[in-house]
Amino acid sequence: MKEKNFLERPLIASIPAITGEVFLFALIIAFTLLSRFYDLGARVMSHDESLHTYFSWLLYKGDGYQHTPMMHGPFQFHLLALTYFLFGVSDFTARIPGVIFNLATIWMLWYWRRYLGKAGALIAGLMMLVSPYMLFYGRYVRNEPFSGFAGMLMFFAVLRYLQSGEKRYFYWLTISLLINFTSKETAYIYVAQLLLFLAFHFFWKLLSKTWKNESSRNAFITLITVALLLVGGALGAALLSKGDAAPMATEPALPSNPMGDAPMAAAGSTAFPWAMVLAFAALATILFATYYLIQGLGWGEIRAERSFDLLMLVGTLIIPLLTPLVSKIFGWSIPTTTPELAGMLTQDYMQIGVAILITFSISIALGLWWKAETWWKNALLFYSLFTILFTTIFTNSSGFFTGIFGSLGYWMVQQEVARGGQPWYYYAFVQIPIYEFLPAIGVWVGVYYGFKKKAAVEIETETEKENTDLDTPTPPVLFDSSTTFALLGWWTLSSLIAYSYAGERMPWLTYHITLPMILLTAWGLNQLVKNISWDELRTQKGWLGAALIFIFFTSLTNTMLGAGGSFQGKGLEQLQATSEFLLPLIVAIASGIGLFYIFRNWTWQNLLNLTTLVIFGLLTLWTGRAAYRAAYINYDNAKEYLVYAHAARGVKDVMAQAKEISMRTSGDLNAIIAYDASAPDTGISWPFVWYLRDFTNLRSFDAPTRSLREASVIVVDEKNFEKIEPVVGEGYYRSDYMRMWWPNQDYYGLVNNRDSHMLFPADYPCTGVFSVFKLFSGKDFSRVCEAFTNPAIRAGVIDIWAKRDFTKYAQATGKSGFGPTDWNPADKMRLYIRKDVASQVWNYGVLPETSESVTIDIYEENTITLSADFTVGMNGTAEGQFDTPRGIAFAPDGSFYVADSRNHRIQHFDADGDFINMWGQFGDATFDDLPGGTFNEPWGIAVGPDGSVYVSDTWSHRIQKFDADGNAITHWGYYGQAEDGLAFWGPRGIAVDADGNVYVSDTGNKRIVKFDSEGNFITEFGQTGMAIGEFDEQVGVAVDDEGVVYVTDTWNQRIQTFIPNEDGTVYFPLNQWDVNAWYGQSLDNKPFLTVDNQGSVFVADPEGYRVLQFSTEGEFIRTWGDYGFDNQTFGLVAAVAVDARGHVWVTDAGNHRVMRFTLPE
Question: How many Å apart are CA 517 and CA 515, to the nearest integer?
Fold first, then answer.
C-alpha cells in the first residue's frame, strides 16, 4: 500500500480528520480572516465606495432604493443595508460584505481542489491570501468580491456538471449567474467567456464522435472555421474603429452625481459598420453549420452532450438580459440617462416593450423545448430573486426594466465614453507587472504542463457519495484534467483580452484577471509539486539546498540592483554603494558554491523543479510585501497604482475636527456645517455626504454666498477657493487638505507617433537590442527605451516598483508633484472654522480675544435687499435672449445696447426694454482683418454723444464703431503687447466722454488708451504694478462729467481715479480706494463700473454676486445682491449702467438677463 504523504496523513493519530491538508487550509482561512478584518475601518472611503455606502444607508433607514445602472446591480446595496441592520453603520461594517465574499472565494478552493489538486488548492489559497488585488479589494466597498465569488462558483458548477451530470449543479450555476447579474455588468464578460468555452467544448466533443457521413462532418468543420474567421474579423474591425481615449486624470471612476448623468459617447462614426456586417455573416455561417451538424449526428447525439445542457441553461436565462441588442439591431433608442428616461415617448415605451417581449418569448420557447421542468425551475429561481432585488421587494417596479434593459444598455453606451482613458496596455504592462507578477509568471508553468501532457489530479469517483466536509478525506482516483486546463487557460486569456478591450479600464477590474491567473498557476504548480522527488529532497539535504537557492537568488538580485552605483568614488555615499554591491556578491558566490556541493548528484529535472518552487516562494514573499504595503501602509496616499479616484486622509481629518467642534459647542451633531456641492462634479460631496450623514444641520452650496457665514465649519472644493475668500474674509481660520488623488500617470503616452520619413536622431535612446523598435518608423518608442537604457530613469522606475519611492524618478525626469502636499493629479479642499466658534474650543483658538466679534465683510452692515422691478432676457439665441451678457450702455434717446458676449452680437432695446434690433456674428480677427460686425466675445460697449456705438471686440483685440442702427463705420486695433497705441491684448472696458473721446481698458497690457472718435491715438497711461497709477488686470473704465476717469484695478483690489491736464494728453492719479471684493482671478471675475451724475460710482462684484455703491470720493454707501436666480439675486454680475431716470441696470451674465433696479431714497 502506498504511503500517505504529509497532506494525507493525520497530524494527530487520535483525530484522523485533521490531516496536513486540512490543517494548512484552515491556517490559510485563519490568516485570511485576520488580514481582511485587521484595521478594516481605517482607510478613508473612496469616491465610489461612498456612493455605495450612502445609498445603502438610505435603504437601511427606510428611504428606499432605486436601481440605476451607473452604480451597477442592487445586490451590494441590499447586502449593505442588511449589514447596517445587524452590525451598525460605520466604515468597518460597510466593508464586511466584501470581506465575507472574498473569504468565500478562498473557501471555494476546498471544492476546487478536486481539479487543482490538493497542493494546487493550497497554493491557490496562499496566492489569494497575499494577492495585492484580492487583499485590497476584498476590503473595499465594490462589487468585485461578489462577482469574483460568482465566477468561481459558476466555473466550478460547470466542471462538476461536465464530470458528473448531476442536475443539482444547474442550481449552483443559476445561483452564480444571479449573484453576477445582480452585482455588476462584468457578468456579461463572465457569461461570454463561459458560453464560448462551452461552445468549443461542445464542438470538440461532437467532432470526436462517429458521424453518419464524412461529408457532413467536413462541411461542418469548414463552416465553423469560416465563422471563426468572421468573428475574428468582426473583433478586429471593432478594435480598429476604437481609439485610445485621452487621459482624464481627475475624472472620478463614476460620475460624481449619483442621480445625474454620466458623460455620453460622442456621435457615432459614419464609417461602414464592418464589425456588425461580419458578425451577422458569422451568425449566418453558424446556422448553416448547424444544418450539417444535425444531418451528420442527429438530435439525439447532440442533446446527449452535457455541454449542450449547460449552453441551453445559461443561454436561455440570459437572453432577456440581451434586450438592448434587439433595440440596437432595429435602430431603436437605448435610453440610459435620467433626461433620456424622463423624456421617453409612447413610441419609446412600445419599442422597449416589444424588445423585451421578443427576448422573453425566445427564452421561454427554447427553455421549454430543451428540458421544460428543469428550465422553469431554474428560470423561476433566477428571475424571482432577480425581480425582488431589482425592485427592492416590489417597492420600485421600474427596477425590473432598468435591470433587464438598462444595465446592458448603459454599458453599451458607456463603452465609447472610455471613462478614465487608460491606454490599451494598462493591465498587461502596468497593473499586472506592478502587483500580480507572481501569477503572471506562474501561468506559464501551467501552460507548460498543460501542453506537455494530460496531467492528473486526485478526485473522488463518480459512483461514491460526494463529500466535501473538512473532516472526511476524499478517496483518490485519477481524472483527465485537460478540460480543467483548457477552462483555466481560456478564462485567463479571455479575461486579459476582454478587460483590455473594454471602454472603461479601471484598476479594480484587475481583480477579475488575477483570479483565473492564480488558479492556472496553482494548477501548474500542483503538477510541479507532484514531480518533485520528496524522498530525494529529504535524504540529500534538499531542504538546506532550498534555503541556499533562496539566499542565492536574493543576494544575486541585490547585487544586480546595486551594480550601477558601485566603485564610483571614495566618498562616504560612494563607499556605501560599493559595499551594498560587494556584500550580496560575496554571499551569492558563497551560496552558489554551496549549491554546487549539495546538488552535484541531483538530476537536472529535480534541481529545476526545486529551484522553480523556491523562486515562486520568493516571489510569494515579494507579492505579500506589495499587498501589505498597499493595504496597511499606503492605503490613504497616492503612491499605489491599484486605485483610481482615491480619497486622501484629509477627509477623515476634516471630519474629526467638524465632529469635535459640533460636540463641544452644541453637545451633539447640530452645528451648522456647510459643504461645497458645486457643479459639474458636485464639489466635495463624495465622500463627505457619507461622513456627514448623522449631522442634522447641513448646508450644501454651489456658489459661495454670504449666507455661509452662519456656518461653524465650511468645506470648500478647489474650484471655489477664490470665490470663498470674500465670504469668509478675516472671520475664519483656514486649513488646506488633499481630498482626492489619482496615481501617477506617466505610463500614458509611452508610444507616440512620428514622421516615418524622418531619420531617427543620433541620441534616439532605442539602441542595442532595443534597435528593433526602429523598424516601426512611424512610432516613437523613446520613453519605453529610456526606462531601460537611461540608468537614472531605470533606477527611478525600479524604486517605484520595489518601494513606491518616486524620489529618483523625479530627479531623473526633472518632474515635480510627487510629495504629499503637491501630488499631481489631485483634488484639494479647504476647511474653514469660524473664529468665534473656534475660540470656544481651546485647542482651535489662538487667544481668548478671538471670542470678540470679528468683522468678516466691511460692507455687510450696509447691505440692503433690493428687488429688480424689471427684467429683460433669458438664455438663448433668439431676439431678446442672451448668452452671458456683459457690457451695457445707454444712448441719448434712452434706448440701451447690450454686448451679448457669447452670442457674439450686440442687441438694441428701447427705454422700456422692448427689442429693436441686433447685429453681429462670430469671427476671429486676431490674425485676419475681418469686416465690422464680426465679433469674438464682445465685452464692453459705450455710446458717444452723437449716438455712435463703440464695442470692445475683446478676443479679436480691436475696437469697432457703429452708427445707432448697427451699421459698421470703422474699427481699429490688432493683437499685440502695447508696441503702439493700437496693439491691444484683450480689451474689455470702454467709455466715451462728453467730447466723444474713447477710453479703452487694454486689460492684458495693463493700460488705459485714449482715442478720438475716429480711432486716432491720443494718449495712454498706466503700467504693470501695485503703485499709484499702475494696474494689475484693470477691467472697467468710466468717465464722469468733469472728465475724471475711474478704473477698476481688479487684482490690486482697488478703484483708481485719474484727472487730465488741460489738453487731455496726460493723466495724473487723483484718488484711490480699496475694494473688499474681487478675490478670484477667474476669467469671469472681471468688474465693470459706471458713474452717474449724482456723485455715485456703481461697481460690479462679479463673483460676490452683488453691486457696490460708492461716492466719487470712495466712501462706501451700500450694496445689494447675493447668489441665486430670483429678482433679488444674481448668477454673475457683469456690468452696471445708470439711465437718465436714475435706474440702475445690471447685466446678470450667470442668469443671462438684464435687470433694472430702482434705488430707495
Answer: 5
User: In the predicted model, what is the mean pLDDT of residues 469-490?
Assistant: 64
Is 60 exceeded by the pLDDT of residue 1036?
yes
Which residue has cell 457643479? 679
Return the biggest CA–CA distance within the chain. Answer: 123
C-alpha span between 1071 and 1078 (Å, rounded): 19
How far is the C-alpha of 1101 from the C-alpha of 1133, rounded, in Å?
6
pLDDT in tens, 370-387: 999 999 999 999 999 999
Q: List, in sequence order, every beta strand (DSSP E) within 433-499.
A: 456-459, 477-480
Strands of 775-884 (E only): list them.
779-780, 826-834, 863-864, 870-872
* Residues contacting residue 1129 through CB under 8 Å, at least 6 positions apart: 1105, 1121, 1122, 1123
Residue 96 Cα distances to 81, 101, 103, 153, 280, angstroms: 11, 9, 10, 20, 46
The grid coordinates listed for 684 are 466635495
Q: Which of 704, 1133, 1125, 1121 is nearest to 884 (CA)?
A: 1133
Q: Residue 411: CB partners within 8 Å, gap ≥ 6?
A: 69, 185, 188
Distance CA 195, CA 188 (A): 10
Q: Beta-carbon neighbour count of residue 477 at 10 Å?
A: 14
How far apart are alpha carbons 512 and 150 in whole angstroms?
11
How many Å apart are CA 407 and CA 71, to the nearest integer?
10
pLDDT tops 50 at residue 900? yes
Calculate helix-pair angle for 96-107, 118-130, nearest 10 degrees.
160
What's the gap between Cα 453 and its chain centre? 45
Look up cell 481524472; give the residue: 479
Question: d(Cα 484, Cα 455) in Å, to the nearest integer?
Answer: 10
- Cα–Cα distance for residue pair 669/697, rounded to 1 Å: 8
Name residue 385's amino acid.
L
What confidence tens digit (pLDDT) does each residue in 41-97 have?
A: 999 999 999 999 999 999 999 999 988 888 899 999 999 999 999 999 999 999 999
Q: What is the DSSP letter of 138?
A: T
Q: Please give the Cα distance from 1067 to 1021 (Å, whole number).
A: 7
Closest alpha carbon to 598 in 528, 551, 558, 531: 551
CA dihedral 361, 363, 364, 366 (to 10 degrees): 110
Which of 261-270, 586-595, 891-900 has the least mean pLDDT?
261-270
Q: How many residues does the chain have?
A: 1161
- Tell me, what DSSP letter sits at residue 775? G
- pTM of the full predicted structure? 0.82
In 10 A of CB 569, how many CB atoms?
Answer: 11
Question: What distance in Å separates the CA atoms of residue 502 and residue 394, rounded to the nearest whole number?
Answer: 33
User: What is the tens place of the pLDDT at every residue in 110-125?
Assistant: 999 999 999 999 999 9
Average pLDDT, the chain: 88
With both helix axes pointing from N to C terminus, report the angle between 20-37 and 109-116 in degrees, rounded to the nearest 10.
Answer: 130
Asked whether 410 and 416 are in contact (CB, 8 A), the reply is no
The phi and psi torsions of 393 (rounded to 5 degrees) equal 55, 50
* pLDDT at 454 (0 to 100): 52
For 747, list phi and psi in degrees, rounded to 5. -80, -5
Sign of the C-alpha dihedral computed for residues 12, 17, 19 and 24 taken in this order: negative
Which residues is 906 bridged to in the sheet? Answer: 899, 919
3-state helix/strand/coil string of 399-422: HHHHHHHHHHHHHHHHCCCCCCCC
User: Cβ(255)–Cβ(70) under 8 Å?
Assistant: yes
DSSP result, 696-719: SSEEEESS--GGGGG-SEEEEEGG
Q: Which residue type, as a one-letter code, is found at position 253?
A: A
528 class by beta-carbon count within 10 Å (0-12 exposed, 13-18 middle, 19+ buried): buried
Cis peptide bond N-terminal to 680, omega within 30: yes
